[in-house]
Write a structure and sequence with these properties.
With 445 residues, the protein is an alpha/beta fold. The chain is built from 16 helices and twelve strands. The protein has a seven-stranded mixed beta sheet with strand order 1-7-6-5-4-2-3, sandwiched between helices.
């Protein structure tokens, strides 16, 4: 390369070094952005495109060049790295993926984040990094079925890491399950999938930290609404596939926590992320990055409609589960932990008691009135419905489902925002009328 190109490259590296050092905004304790994810995101670094474009460029390269041979040696010894604008290989760090990770860290209020190929990749690599052979996890008995299977079957067989499942609402049970010197992780969901049980994150973090245990929280159900790291959690994991994507067209995950954790997970010799390689594609990172600025608006509308539907369903005599309702056992706790003006989450559950009744109602809602779509996942602009016991929690046996409080007729609804609220509500009422016409009672409470 010519001398002019060398000067330009050096200038670019200097610019990257200045802006990359801003891992997250320096927020005073009395600054309102500390407690508002939307404001924190707005103050985070904005990455411009290579030629001055207002959107960042997609760095699609798998590998990266250097100006001098000695630079490569310094990168492999850790003397130079992404924060100084030096990249080795996209399984390690990629500029586009790194920028998405900064955005996720801003939302969650953590020092750093790393974006992965899926939510399960985020969960599994975190647990493998924190637990060695013979390690122990204490986890909520009510978790996403895939997470439950990972903890209950895969990790014991492959890694010799065992899990004790507990009702995390029973804090004495949690204390008794933690074995000091052996337990590595307390794993919970901020709001349980699918039963919408609310975890007392500040108290659980206090219990775990008193015994030297790390707390990992899956915040997939409540991005923007709850901020586990601000409530004491050490690590927050996400399936970005859900609300953060919002389009049901991308599979992705994220790990949020201290920079020391991310760096340890990217260690060339011992890092679970580096060695297992659940790498996010830069094009996926770009897509997600473009959707994050309106995440707050989307979440507020998901939550607003879920609250409206839950209130109306309750008045109809349906057995509805939603933390926004005052009779929900976690209502007051949720309200005390939630970020202001975001609501109580975009998911509600209807307990139809039997799988047959649940299936009949979902069939009416999809095929006769177009209220929603029978599909797993959540965070889509249309309402998604599934009978959890026979779908996303099917990895659990009958006793495990009973312990988790998962009824055979529990319908999980991820409330969308397509159409008007009144239009969609009339479709719901029409579906109920269709159930009655089929000879089914409306008294399901």
């Amino acid at each position: 390369m010519g001398e002019e190109n060398n000067v330009l490259l050096e200038r670019k590296q200097e610019e990257v070094m200045v802006t990359s050092s801003e891992k997250k905004p320096k927020i005073a304790s009395d600054d309102p952005t500390r407690d508002d994810p939307t404001m924190a995101l707005a103050t985070a670094r904005h990455e411009f495109g290579e030629h001055g474009g207002i959107n960042m460029s997609i760095e699609a390269s798998a590998t990266f060049t250097v100006m001098e041979p000695v630079t490569m040696r310094k990168m492999f010894t850790g003397e130079l790295g992404p924060e100084q604008g030096f990249f080795i290989y996209s399984r390690h760090f990629n500029p586009t993926v790194l920028n998405l990770s900064r955005q996720i860290a801003a939302i969650e209020g953590t020092e750093a984040a790393y974006s992965t190929a899926s939510g399960m990749a985020a969960i599994s690599t975190v647990l493998m990094q924190l637990c060695s052979s013979g390690g122990h996890v204490v986890a909520s008995c009510c978790l996403y079925g895939g997470t439950h299977a990972l903890l209950n079957h895969f990790l014991p067989r492959v890694c010799n890491v065992t899990t004790t499942f507990v009702d995390v609402r029973d804090h004495e049970m949690v204390k008794e399950a933690i074995v000091e010197g052996r337990t590595n992780v307390l794993f919970v969901e901020s709001m349980s999938n699918p039963t919408l049980m609310v975890a007392n994150l500040p108290e659980l973090c206090r219990i775990a930290h008193d015994k030297g245990v790390k707390v990992v929280v899956d915040n997939t159900f409540t991005p923007m609404v709850l901020s586990p790291a601000r409530l004491g959690a050490d690590i927050v994991v996400h399936s970005l596939t859900k609300y953060i994507s919002g389009g049901a067209d991308i599979i992705a995950g994220a790990i949020c926590g201290p920079a020391s954790l991310v760096n340890s997970m990217m260690d060339l010799h011992q890092g679970a992320l580096m060695l297992l390689g659940p790498t996010m594609n830069a094009k996926v990172a770009f897509e997600l990055s473009e959707r994050i600025p309106h995440l707050g608006l989307r979440m507020k509308e998901h939550c607003r409609r879920a609250m409206a539907y839950a209130t109306r369903m309750k008045k109809l005599g349906l057995k509805v589960i939603y933390p926004g309702l005052e009779e929900h056992p976690g209502h007051t706790l949720f309200k005390s932990m939630a970020n202001e003006n975001y609501g109580f989450g975009g998911i509600l559950c209807l307990d139809m008691e039997t799988e047959e009744k649940a299936n009949q109602l979902m069939s009416q809602l999809q095929n006769n009135t177009q209220f929603g779509i029978m599909a797993v996942s959540l965070g889509y602009h249309e309402t998604l419905m599934s009978c959890s016991g026979s779908s996303t929690s099917s990895e659990m046996n009958t006793n495990e489902k009973k312990m988790a409080g998962i009824s055979p007729g529990l319908i999980r609804m991820s409330i969308g925002y397509s159409g008007t609220l009144e239009q969609k509500w009339s479709q719901f009422e029409k579906a109920l009328a269709g159930m009655k016409d089929c000879g089914l009672s409306r008294n399901w409470v």
